[in-house]
Amino acid sequence: MPLSRRRLLSGMLGLAAAPLVSGCPGGKPGGQPAADGEPAAGGQPGGGKKIKAGLVTDTGGVGDKSFNAAAWEGLQRAEKELGAEVKFTESKQAADYVGNLTRYARGGYDVVFAVGFLMQDALAEVAPRFPDVKFAIIDGDAPPDRPNCVALKFREEEGSFLAGALAGAVTRTNTVGFIGGMEVPLIKKFEAGYKAGVRTTNAKAAVRVGYAGTWTDPQKGQEMAISQMGAGADILYHAAGQTGIGVITAAKNKGEGFYAIGVDRDQDDIAPGRVLTSMVKRVDNVVFDTCSEVARGDFQPGTEVYGLKEAGVGLSPMRHTKQDVPADVLSRIDTLRQQIIAGTLKPPATLEELASFEAP
Amino acid sequence: MNDLPLLPLLASGLRLWTPLALAAMGGVVSERAGVINIGLEAMLLAGAFGGVAGAQATGSLATGAVAGIALGALVGLLHAVLTQALRVPHILSGVGLNLAALGLSTYALRLSGEGGIEAPGLLPTEATIAVAVLVVAATWFVLARTPLGLRLRACGENPLAALGAGVALGPIRYGAVTASGALAGLGGVALALGGLGTFTENMTAGRGYIALAAVIFGRWHPLGAAAAALLFGLGDALQLSLQTAGLSRVIPPDFLALLPYVLTLAALAGFAGRSGAPAALGRTDG
Question: What angle is formed at CA A108 by the lines to CA A105 and CA A114, rounded to 5 degrees?
Fold first, then answer.
């Protein structure tokens, strides 16, 4: 857990440095704690100054119980543990991105998060005008050569690979399914990693693939799932947002012997026992981590990619299904996980890479 | 074609048809009375929300269904007040209601917290399909074979003549648009409580607009609109099955997703003839 170790270390440094900072005449006056009524406690666990952090979502909103919600959780943790002042704005439409980002940049915020690749262009427009403000975009590209911008990305193919390896080992029909929201490169990463994982543990298994063409239509997800189950698939992995809720419902309605695999956050509780596992993207960790970097004055521009090794992606703890999976399968999955972390196994991120992928 | 079993395909098509057909009947009733109803999306969403939230609050699917229908009817009544009493242009009113319904239902979903809005059970989809078939037949019967239907159609064709003949224009239009909301609300109930049992943000995903298109393609006739919706539902089921069968390796899924639209257009292009729109549709001056 390199993340937590780093956090612990910086926390200790923060504690040690606190008396020095408060007595330092050159430092910023107290990190403006009195203004917002926060207790002026020295020695924040994250160290550094108290920052203001803003978050702009795309049109999904922080109530999506998925991606945006996780980003907001990360900020709330920064509020609690770093004493940061945090706020979010939901974009009503794509035309609002620039205005929403600008408002935070003008409002004296230290770091502004743009959630989702849709905000890429807006970020490229706003960031150069506010060189003193740090910007972080999640799942998108940062404008090149901007020292105040970082792109936070995930190796979704690594988590999806483990999900596929598990599905390949658990399927009784030698057929599993994948249901994507829209056919975009980001979701192809999930598909490629998943298929490679299935192939690794079950060379005979077939993967049925469907794209619903929408992120918000659970009925369509359900019909897609019913169609795939009709063709023999007994485990269905979705990367389809709310459309995927229909996939999980389909597995739940079908009952014993059928599983869904959730995505982005731990969805195991949506249908306890019928969601085999979830491929979790720790957007919260990544957002929190960036906040503490800014607080420490240790902001790194460029691109940061979070995979299994950085605890940015991974499988859920399988609270309801662990007992259904044989121990040797679980240990096989763990071995594969270790191999990916060690770098000896590299799951494919595109269908082209998948074509030349050789299962270990 | 072992990968395209016919019966499951038909069943899937009928499940996809049900909310569309019910909303389309709402569209027919409203528009035949002379009121454009682009607010079907809002009424569907209200029905879906009311259905699941009502079932969750009372623990009863039947009460939930009634709540969904009532909430849809309420949105319909609002559309009637806006367009009839306040003379708001019909499309403006409908689009406004769509935005408001999406915003309000999403806000309520946020307030509901981590557990979301979940019904305690499911309505069997066989039942919702059967109800939709009955509603289509009843809509046709009322419009074509009853004095009330004649009066309603008169309000859409020539409101002044209808008034002159003693037809109660105001009450009939209020009633028609409210009934339209109830029908679309029932569609939302079928969508959310039949099979899914949960409410998610914007879960109608544009079905109201598709239903309105079905009304127009079906030339404002209940059976025509139901047939157009059926083509759409079957087309959608077919493209999902084709993806399952592996066709998306050859044809990109985005193109396959066009199939229901193309099918519906192609089939209905054959039915050329008079346009069939009620003559006074959308007028705010009569």
Answer: 35
Question: Looking at this protein, which amino acid is placed at residue A324?
Answer: D
Measure the CA–CA gap between B237 and B216, rounded to whole angstroms. 22
Tens digits of residue pLDDT in B59-75? 999 999 999 999 999 99
User: Is B3 or A197 the better-scoring residue by pLDDT?
Assistant: A197
Q: Tell me, yes or no, if B223 comes closer than 8 A to chain A by beta carbon.
A: no
Q: What distance lies between CA B107 and its chain's CA centroid? A: 23
User: What is the rounded CA–CA span in Å between residue B266 and residue B40?
Assistant: 24
| Interchain contact, A227 vs B244, CB within 8 Å | yes
The pLDDT, as a whole number, for residue A12 is 37
Residue that the structure tokens 């799932």 belong to: A225
Whole-complex ipTM? 0.93
* pTM for this model (two decimals): 0.86
> Can you list the domains of chain A with their CATH numbers?
50-154+282-313 (3.40.50.2300), 156-280+326-355 (3.40.50.2300)
Q: Which amino acid is at B15?
A: R
Angstrom distances, CA of residue B279 to CA of A253, B26, B157, B159, B276: 47, 19, 5, 9, 8
Q: What is the pLDDT of residue A63?
A: 67
Q: Is it the case that residue A7 has pLDDT exceeding 80?
A: no
A76 part of contact set with chain B, CB < 8 Å:
no
pLDDT single digits (tens) B91-110: 999 999 999 999 999 889 88
Supply the CATH classification number for the domain B6-269.
1.10.3470
The CA–CA distances, whole Å, from A305 to A2, A37, A147, A352 equal: 14, 36, 17, 21
Integer Cα distance of A228 and A264 in angstroms: 22
- Which residues does chain B have within 8 Å of residue A228's beta carbon, measured at their own beta carbons? 244
Measured between CA atoms, the residue of chain A closest to residue B109 is A63
Helix segments in chain B, DSSP class H: 6-32, 40-58, 61-80, 90-111, 125-145, 147-157, 159-164, 169-193, 207-217, 222-244, 253-256, 259-269
- Minimal Cα distance from B107: which residue of A? A63
